[in-house]
Design brief:
about 1000 residues; alpha+beta; 5-stranded antiparallel sheet; 26 helices; 29 strands; flat
């Protein structure tokens, strides 16, 4: 068979390779058509799902309308009946989170979940629909509910009376997740494990529902993002994108929501893919059969040509003994093999002749004494003589082929060598007598190099040819001569400079001495300037603290002064007395905070000191708990105190610092708790008393635990950061460590925090609380003597406190609003004693006292300085001006009475008091008209044993409401509970078990 015939079969194989792509193109065209049909069917399913969603919304709207038309809601004013009706609907329709009723004032008065009762409705779309337009809110209001902290759909209907006036609204909140049932048919699992992905978006771009990416629910997105599949998946080519808008149901027109479904192509086209795989398998089988046929046909054609190829490769590798077997045929391949064998014979003969010439040329080059080398246009070595080979320690001269100067012993000079090569080749002219270093095995040498362009037979530059001769000895001789001349010049220069240096040294020492004195003067001036600036800063800080303390203590003087005046009023009821005590205790707490601010400077300077005192631990805890029970009640959260074990009555510690620590911890707990409550637990733990504060607040992220103990660092939501300075916890931690304890914290973000510390508080045996010793009340002055007192103060509140406190005791009070008026009043009345403020307009207290002391009749009159400043230097200044004593505002009435007694030498008249003896207490106990039952006593006893004071007070309220005759018993238990006298309560209740 001729070669042309065999070539024909090869063409048939080429035709087959063209038909296969055509087959594939037609197949995928059919697939595209099927995909369009599947998308049409999927569109119908999505439209059906949207209709189901409309039906669901229609039913919810109908629910709220039915409830709004209920007679109970329209006519009943009893919130419990409305709540019960809503609970019945809620229990029957469990699709809702809660059902609420808002009255005509837009306040929530009933709610099945019990959230935010009494709270006014916020400015939401459903409020506008119901209260402003009188229409039904159709569920288009989708917001994150603050109570459930999740996305809710709001349905609301107005409640109208017979006159068609809006008297309220029924509001239903449904979680967005509940619309999942409308899309359940679209979320079937397929064999490949992929699922349908669904996004529901309202007309404003709010993502209402997503069955796979719940983190973005409730966020605003754009429809372009959905179209680009930013919300669905980055690999959107694997999904079929279906969009359907809400058509409405019956008279419900819809909320213009859009449903976007991304259906997995892999699941939709599973059967088509199976068919495709079968067709591909059949096509591959046919293709393999065709390839086998082509291979068998072309093998005989390719074999002679392959033999020629192998022979040509061997010839190129230097094997000149190769010979191709002659094909016994008369076609072109047979003639080609014969011609190839003749060519191989001629090349072999020419190569042997060239080899002889090359050996002679190599002998001549190696005999030269110079270094000879040649390179190509890239400065890559093509060859060299034996001199170059020996210097580089190469085995043979051919080893240098393919190397550059960077690969040889003189690689550090390679950039200069290559630059010279480039100049020779680019300029096409020689460069001779180049003196350059060269590195050899015995050390550094110098050579003189000549380089000329290397040309081919056509005269083109194909590289560079170079020779080099060693000139090291000549170079060394030149260097020696140069060095000798340089030394001679240096010797002359040194002798000349030595004389000049001696003269300059004396001048330099003189200048250095002057410069040193100048620097000392500059340093002294800088130090004095720094000292002045530091003094000014300290004065500014002291002035700020003094002004701040004065401004805060001045109103506190009025608050605490009038609480002390009201304490003396015997006409107040016990409840009023309790309220006055709370106001007084809150004022004392504020005064403590002011003192803490003043102590901040001491803490920063490390000068804070502890002042241990003996105090009643039960009363200490009572004051703390009553303060924070009130604050927790104002915020709508619970506050619980639990005594985990029996606590000592009297302890020795720094009461002020311990109160500061607990107030800071409890204050933070109440501030960061919006729902739930705060618990204070106190009990013995490893020979120490452990204080633990627990809350159900916002919690702290693990990364923020260390930050909360750093000054001015605040974590959490922005609304809490505005409520503090970030100093509370750092100061608390420092104080706890000073008291020998450690402050620990455990917190879970979103669930709450626990702070605890354990302190070694020394128990005081046989403790007697001085505050518990009954003190008689001062009611006047013995002997009926009356004294005139001049009160000088620019604040009317402070003068009023003095007037109302001292006038009932028999004093005559004269007031003056500044120092100048005080001088005039003193001349007019001749007072027995003067009480004056220090900082006042027109004339301050210091100047007034100084002028009074210069008048003979006022030299010995007692003068008491009453100031809101508590700095020691202010007290010293007042004494230097002529004041006899000093009292700080806000002052205690007892302290003022002691100063009056001291300076006027008077005797107080006291109210007659009687102490209650043990027998009288027993008589009081015996006077209980009705005893509690054994069960009632047992319930109280259980609460006492777990230390639940709040639970005891609630139980007592229930007993009083049901059994009025038990009131004497409950009053006594309540008094003991407020004082945390748990042991006495147990003894009292045990009588009735």
């Amino acid at each position: 068979m001729k070669f042309a015939t065999r070539l024909l079969f090869l063409c048939l194989g080429s035709v087959l390779s063209i038909t296969v792509p055509v087959y594939v193109f037609l197949y995928y065209t059919g697939i595209h058509t099927l995909e369009q049909q599947i998308e049409h069917r999927l569109q119908e399913r999505v439209s059906y799902a949207v209709e189901g969603l409309d039906r669901m919304l229609f039913e919810r709207i109908g629910d709220v309308q039915i409830m709004a038309k209920s007679q109970v809601v329209q006519n009943s004013s009893n919130t419990s009946e409305i709540t019960q009706l809503l609970l019945d609907y809620r229990n029957y329709y469990r699709i809702y989170s809660s059902l609420s009723f808002f009255d005509s004032h837009r306040q929530r008065v009933a709610d099945t979940a019990g959230f935010s009762l009494g709270q006014a409705a916020t400015a939401s779309p459903w409020v506008q629909d119901v209260f402003e337009r009188g229409e039904v809110s159709l569920g288009r209001d989708v917001n994150v509910d603050p109570n459930f902290k999740s996305l809710q759909i709001f349905f609301a209907a107005p409640v109208k009376n017979q006159n068609h006036q809006i008297v309220g609204a029924v509001v239903a909140r449904m979680p967005v997740e509940n619309i999942y049932y409308a899309f359940s048919l679209l979320e079937e699992n397929f064999d490949n494990g992929q699922q349908t992905r669904i996004d529901l978006v309202d007309r404003n771009g709010l993502l209402i529902y997503s069955n796979y990416n719940r983190a973005t629910i409730g966020q605003l997105i754009s429809f372009s993002e959905v179209a680009n599949h930013n919300i669905v998946d980055s690999s959107h080519e694997n999904f079929i994108h279906i969009t359907a808008k809400e058509p409405g149901y019956l008279d419900f027109k819809g909320n213009e929501w859009t449903l976007i479904v991304h259906y997995p192509k892999q699941a939709a086209l599973a059967s088509i893919k199976h068919l495709r795989n079968q067709v591909i398998a059949i096509g591959m089988g046919l293709l393999i059969l065709a390839m086998v046929a082509i291979f068998l046909i072309t093998r005989n054609t390719i074999q002679p040509i392959s033999a020629l190829k192998i022979a040509a490769l061997q010839l190129g590798q230097g094997n000149f003994q190769v010979e191709v077997p002659v094909v016994v045929s008369r076609d072109e391949i047979g003639e080609l093999t014969t011609a190839f064998n003749q060519m191989v014979k001629q090349v072999k003969e020419a190569r042997e002749e060239l080899h002889e010439q090359e050996k002679f040329l190599r002998l001549v080059i190696d005999s030269l004494p110079e270094l000879v080398f040649w390179k190509d246009t890239n400065s890559v070595y093509l060859g060299c003589n034996d001199k170059v080979t020996q210097i580089n320690q190469l085995k043979h001269s051919t080893d240098i082929i393919g190397k550059t100067d960077f690969d040889l012993v003189w690689k550090e000079f390679a950039p200069d060598y290559i630059r010279d090569d480039s100049l020779v080749m680019s300029r096409d002219e020689p460069k001779i007598r180049i003196v350059e270093p060269i590195k050899q095995s015995e050390g550094m040498r110098w050579v003189e190099t000549n380089k000329i362009p290397l040309r081919n037979a056509q005269g083109q530059v194909i590289g560079v040819l170079g020779t080099a001769i060693d000139i090291t000895e000549r170079k060394q001789a030149e260097e020696l001569l140069k060095e000798y001349n340089q030394r001679l010049e240096e010797a002359v220069t040194v002798q000349t400079e030595e004389l000049a240096a001696a003269n300059e040294e004396l001048q330099t020492q003189t200048e250095e001495l002057w410069h040193h004195n100048h620097l000392l003067e500059q340093a002294k001036a800088i130090a004095e300037q720094a000292k002045r600036q530091a003094d000014l800063a300290n004065q500014a800080k002291s002035s700020f603290l003094a002004n701040m303390s004065h401004e805060l203590r001045t109103p506190l003087n009025g608050i605490l002064g009038y609480t002390q005046i009201l304490f003396r009023d015997k006409t107040l009821t016990p409840k009023q007395q309790e309220g006055i005590e709370i106001i007084h205790r809150s004022g004392e707490y504020l005064l403590t905070l002011i003192n803490d601010i003043l102590d901040l400077a001491k803490i920063e300077a490390g000068k804070i000191e502890l002042s241990p005192v003996e105090f009643n631990l039960n009363q200490f805890i009572q004051g703390i708990t009553e303060l924070f029970q009130m604050r927790a009640q104002q915020k709508g959260i619970a506050f619980i105190y639990e005594a985990l074990s029996h606590l000592p009555l009297g302890v020795q510690a720094d009461e002020k610092r311990l109160r500061q620590v607990l107030i800071n911890l409890l204050g933070n707990a109440v501030k960061f708790t919006s729902s739930g409550g705060v618990t204070l637990k106190i009990g013995h733990h490893e020979a120490k008393i452990r204080f633990q504060v627990e809350d159900t607040g916002a919690g702290i992220a693990p990364a923020d635990i260390d930050k909360i103990f750093k000054p001015f660092q605040q974590v959490g939501e922005e609304k809490y950061k505005a409520e503090g300075t970030g100093l509370g916890l750092p100061i608390t931690k420092k104080l706890v460590e000073m008291m020998g304890g450690e402050l620990h914290v455990e917190s879970t973000l979103g669930q709450g925090s626990i702070f605890w510390l354990a302190l070694e508080l020394l128990e005081v045996p046989n403790f007697v609380d001085a505050q518990q010793v009954p003190k008689s009340t001062i009611i006047g002055i013995e002997g009926g003597i009356s004294y005139q007192i001049l009160v000088v103060d620019d604040k009317w509140e402070n003068r009023s406190v003095m007037n109302n406190l001292l006038t009932p005791l028999g004093f005559k009070i004269v007031e003056a609003s500044h120092g100048q008026a005080g001088l005039e009043k003193a001349h007019e009345m001749g007072p027995d004693l003067i009480i004056t403020d220090l900082v006042m307009p027109v004339m301050d207290g210091f100047e007034m006292v100084r002028q009074l002391r210069q008048i003979p009749k006022f030299e010995n009159i007692p003068i008491i300085a009453a100031s809101a400043s508590v700095f020691e230097y202010h007290q010293q200044q007042s004494r230097m001006a002529g004041c006899n004593d000093f009292i700080a505002k806000p002052f205690r009435a007892e302290a003022l009475f002691e100063l009056l007694q001291k300076h006027l030498n008077l005797t107080w008249s006291h109210e007659q008091t009687f102490s209650q003896t043990t027998s009288e207490v027993d008589e009081f106990n015996e006077g209980i008209t009705m005893s509690p039952s054994a069960k009632q006593a047992a319930d109280l006893y259980d609460l006492i044993m777990i230390g639940d004071i709040a639970g005891i007070l609630e139980q007592l309220d229930e007993l009083e409401a049901t059994e009025t005759l038990l009131r004497p018993f409950t009053n006594q238990v309540r008094q003991l509970a407020k004082k945390f006298e748990e042991k006495q309560i147990c003894e009292l209740v045990e009588r009735y078990l």
